[in-house]
Amino acid sequence: MPGKLFLFDGTAIFYRGYYGIDVTLTNSKGEPTNALFGTARMLSKFTRERMKNGDYAIFAFDRKEATKRHDAYESYKATREAMPDALVAQLKDIPELVEAFGIKFLSIAGIEADDILATAAKKYRDKVDEVLIVTGDKDLLQLVDDKVHILRFVTGLTDLDVYDREKVLSRYELEPERLHALLSLAGDPSDNIPGVPGIGIKTAQKLLKEYGDIEGIYANIRKLSP
């Protein structure tokens, strides 16, 4: 199974298309099309410049159903605004648009797009030459290794920054496999997930660099300042 596997965070791309292009863009029926246009323009440029015959691609998309995270924590993502009506109106056409580019559209009830991407990355990393995840989500950086890399949005939909292990370490001062501990301690406001009271990113980095992981912090809890 040679070639590269491209994993697209479809929900993020669709949202960026919506907010990056004038919402007054419509078709002949007066239906909004800006998110579809933005997504199509991004995929057209991406497939033309980065993908070759023999590569594979999945475009993962969130569903409206609750996930296991909502069951575990009632306030998960509770601070996020509802999807605009003009964006909702374009949802029905996104699967057909994506698959017209030869990309598999995948959306599963009860499973977030992030989890689809992470599962695919883990399942296929040893079967392809490289896995490239296109996203703006920092959570997926914990998957980075010698074969899994992140193409992270900088601005718009086509300005992408490549994250390998060295880039993650430079940006967060920790290896990819320790980012879950960093976010557990500091929390993640974008998902409305609280961290440990009084601990932000800098303190979490310091603790993890000194004690290794959360278990190490607990083992040395009496040494910490209040």
Please tell me how large the radius of gyration is. Answer: 19 Å
Strand content: 5-15%
| Tally of distinct domains | 2
How far the N terminus sits from the C terminus, by CA atoms, comes to 53 Å
The CATH topology of the largest domain corresponds to Rossmann fold
What topology, given as strand order, has the largest sheet?
3-2-1-4-5-6
- Average residue pLDDT: 92
What is the CATH C level class of the largest domain, in words? Alpha Beta
What is the CATH-assigned architecture of the largest domain? 3-Layer(aba) Sandwich
Offer a few descriptive terms.
39% helix; DNA polymerase, domain 1; alpha/beta; 10 helices; 2 domains; 226 residues; single chain; Rossmann fold; 6-stranded mixed β-sheet; globular
Write up this protein.
This protein is an alpha/beta fold and 226 residues long. It folds into two domains: 4-164, Rossmann fold (3-Layer(aba) Sandwich), CATH 3.40.50.1010; 176-223, 5' to 3' exonuclease, C-terminal subdomain (DNA polymerase, domain 1). Helix content is 39%, strand content 15%. Helix 1 (10-20) crosses helix 2 and helix 8 packs across helix 9. The N and C termini lie far apart (53 Å).
